[in-house]
Design a protein that fits this description.
The chain has 91 residues and is an alpha+beta fold. The protein is built from 2 helices and 5 strands. InterPro entries: Beta-grasp_dom_sf, MoaD_arc-typ, Mopterin_synth/thiamin_S_b, Sulfur_Carrier/Prot_Modifier, ThiS/MoaD-like.
Length: 91
């Protein structure tokens, strides 16, 4: 299943400056593993020591926040688009 992953600028140094990637994965968790296989070190920037997504990251599947779906167990299908978005705070 071809999944498009949109990589934010601060993480592009881990993806050879690629802003968009194609990956094969059945859910967000396996997508994170696939990213780590292709780009060693990126998972440590995305996940904490327990394997959960870091608090300051938002992940969207087809514009839907995975926190309101099944979290990292959210299923992915062919043609889905996953966006990794760093949280922005301030005022």
């Amino acid at each position: 299943m071809a999944i498009t992953v949109l990589i934010p600028t601060p993480l592009q140094k881990f993806t050879n400056n690629q802003a968009s990637l194609e990956c094969e994965a059945s859910d967000v968790k396996s997508l994170l593993e696939a990213l780590e296989q292709s780009f060693p070190g990126i998972k440590a920037r995305l996940c904490d020591e327990q394997g959960q997504l870091r608090r300051f990251l938002n992940v969207y599947v087809n514009s839907e926040d995975i926190r309101f779906l099944d979290g990292i167990q959210t299923s992915l299908g062919n043609g889905d688009e996953v966006s990794i978005v760093p949280a922005v705070a301030g005022g």
